[in-house]
Amino acid sequence: MKNLTIKRCAAVFAACTVLAAALPYSGAPVIAAGNIISNSTFESGTTGWGTYKESGGKCSLGTEDGQLALTVSNVGKLNYAVQVFYDIVPLYQNGVYRLKYDISSSEPRFIEGMIQQNGGTYQAYTWKGLQLTTEPQTVDYEFTMEKETDIMAKLVFNCGIQEKYEGELPEHTIYIDNVSLELVDDSNVDYASSRPYAPSINVDQVGYRTDGRKKAVFRDVTDQTEFKVVNADTKEAVFTGKLENRTENKRADETNWTGDFSSVSEAGKYYISCEGLDDSYTFEIGDKVYSNLIDDSVRMLYLQRCGVKIEDKDFGHDACHTDMATVYGTNEKIDVSGGWHDAGDYGRYVVPAAKAVADLLYAYEAAPELYSDDIGIPESGNGTPDILDEARFELEWMMKMQTADGGAYHKVSCANFPAYVMPTKETAELIVTPVSSTATADLCASMALAAEFYEKYDKDFAKKCMDAADKAWVWLEANPNFLFKNPADIVTGEYGDKTDKDERYWAAVQMYRATGDEKYLSGVSRAVTGLDWSTVGDYGNIALLTMKNADKESEAYKAAYENAVSAVEKQAKSLLSTSGASPYGEAISMYNWGSNMTIANGGIILALAGKLTGEQSYYDAAQAQLNYLLGVNPCGTCFVSGYGTVSPENPHHRPSMAVGHAMKGMLAGGVNQNLEDSAAKAYCQDQPAAKCYVDNSESYSTNEITIYWNSPLTYLLSLTENTGSGEQQQSTTTTTTAATTTTTTTTTTIATSEVGEEASLYGDANCDGAVDMGDAVLIMQSLANPNKYGVNGSDEHRITSKGLANADVSDRGDGVTTGDAQAIQAYLLHMIEKLPR
Length: 837
Ligand code: G3I
Ligand code: 9MR
Ligand code: ZN
What we know:
Layout: H1 4-21, E1 49-53, E2 57-64, E3 67-75, E4 82-91, E5 96-105, E6 109-116, E7 124-132, E8 137-144, E9 150-158, E10 172-185, E11 201-202, E12 207-209, E13 215-218, E14 226-231, E15 237-242, E16 244-249, E17 254-260, E18 268-273, E19 283-286, H2 291-303, E20 325-327, E21 333-334, E22 348-349, H3 350-366, H4 386-400, E23 408-409, E24 411-413, E25 431-432, E26 435-436, H5 437-454, H6 459-478, H7 501-515, H8 537-545, H9 555-581, H10 595-613, H11 616-629, H12 654-659, H13 678-684, H14 700-703, H15 707-719, E27 733-736, E28 741-744, H16 773-784, H17 786-789, H18 801-807, H19 818-828
Parallel strand pairs: 12-19, 20-25
Antiparallel strand pairs: 1-4, 2-3, 3-10, 4-9, 5-8, 5-10, 6-7, 6-9, 11-13, 13-17, 14-15, 14-18, 16-17, 18-19, 20-21, 22-24, 23-26, 24-25, 27-28
The protein binds ligand G3I, ligand 9MR and zinc ion (ZN).
């Protein structure tokens, strides 16, 4: 209610101050001036202000005569049962602030006014008890921020019950106006200390496979042209490389160079140095650099288990969420115990569950040798690989989510998200929400897929999976679109969708793969795509690409297969070009919620295209996605907790928040340029798109974790195993003529079969009695990594002498070459009629 012009200027100035204050990476100092509160005089509503209610508190917020007006109809049972607040107030340690506001109440009463931590212990940085009367009083005082810098503190008025003062109160209104918070003295503020360190040389902090592509990304370069790879133990430089590909990286607002050191292949610990820049973090080169990560990426799911006692030194707890759940809108109670908590919250949702299970099963299929039976879950040592045991835990819960007529309930959770407590402390009523066609189709597909995998270990369970899939299919045929929307009184994860076409496609293909019955393909005309929770078509494509027992002569199969191949190749081409355009190699150009999943998913498609075409560039780009997740990114962070040098320490993950440190092996959601929570808004407002990430537990839109962000990481780790270029093993021919020097590394030949070995089935390189992609893959592996997959290699799945005879299908007699792998693919794609060609 003051001079409008002055107020407008103040608001603009305040907005600038917040912007400047929220610069985690920039070196510019913050100017101590202006009102930090942008909506301070309320002439245009309540923007920026909100209320919080709990424990019986009831209130509503509006404005009256240009003042903020909080009408409290019930003071509830706690002093903070009713709060009115202004979010995101940056307070710098040692800064001196002046806080000022006018306040009154229609009913005389005591309240508390403070600036507090938003999360954690909710400690107050400044606090005042206020005896309000109907006459406005001006509160005006200075305080020094003594605690560590908190860039997203909250100005809060506790308007709940005050037992020591008035206690219960009739309905009344509290008026606030002319709020101002200024940083009046920042001479003792060390702004730099509140910004995370931004390394100038970004490497994969977990490490690189010996035969893999190895790249580092540089920034802050002035006139340097070279870098060195240094052995961390001996401090000797083992390689000198050139800084290449200078790129203006607009998305990260920096200039980058890349350094390729793929030829360093000796196992060991290294770092990268470049004159004038800080050395990179130390990383490892080795054949098993990702082994622990693979195990932990799966074991994290064990720690997410619901409904059973969890054994773990840090994260163990008694069985949680064991009550019967109410079917929404009825009095019916059902048992839906089990399954994994979805994420940082404790909801359990069928749609993302299906993605997670599919990733695990296909991860296992892609590289079974990576998955042991001893990762430290209760089923370890039972003869079934732990990854299959873990997936089964989720599948058993999904079965409970199926109705008698085959539909799948969409989800089970409480009505609201819980406080930051361990799962046993969430004791509100569990509610099962209605059936959806997306959940049902996802359940159908994942059960049909699962049936294959458990056949070998537990026939009864495999049959149960198939029965569930059959039932779900019947429901799908009888029911058109049943898309899900959260009922108005349930606010937990929605996992809604615009269409169930892709889910139905996946279900149809997976039913065909499980049964061989072509009737399931009748509705499948073209391949659809997607590997996240809302679009799942590529799981159908993967089912076709990796199907072993198809009738290769069938027209229906051929059509579906070819569609799937071209859908995957088309995506891979575009991903390859996106990845190639970014110095950091990520195959995305927009960073949305869960971008790390999108990046892992892109890696999966790229690696599949590598397997289809044998083209190394696809494998390299797939590897680049993994490298991005593990440290080659503009945030200089390894996004998996507990791995690398710098990784998420404050994930939005309730068990981690309750215990006080991050659970290991969780992939954070990652960069999200849409700033969808208050921490992201506070810290990233002024950041370029590619740096909108903050390791703050309040940042659920950048720093949460989920089961279905971890699972594509596991799958990507599987698919990139043994896909290195094997540069050091490749035979390189250098032809020198007077005018030109050409280096060719394309055609590599390994030993021909032993003299006299006869082919038993042309193309069957792995001697499993069929000609399929596995044969082309083994040929490529044996060429890329002969020490492991060559005829004298160390791996139990290495090519045999008989396999070599079978494999030599192109230009017979020339030994086994990449041409043979290509010929097998051409045959599988029906481009050639028979083998040998
Ligand atoms: O895809 C669009 C893009 O086209 C658009 O340009 C952009 C601009 O806003 O938005 C993109 O959509 C985003 C979408 O995720 C992408 O999948 C939305 O902004 C974003 O709000 C949405 O976030 C979802 C979030 O729930 C909120 O609904 C996440 O995908 C989803 O993973 C997340 O899931 C939550 C559960 O609800 C509860 N449990 C935790 C879990 C993880 O945070
Ligand atoms: O904790 C919730 C997280 O798991 C979800 O992904 C996210 C988006 O749905 O929501 C989080 O809960 C927040 C809610 O949406 C808004 N109020 C603050 C909650 C954080 O506790
Ligand atoms: Zn639980």
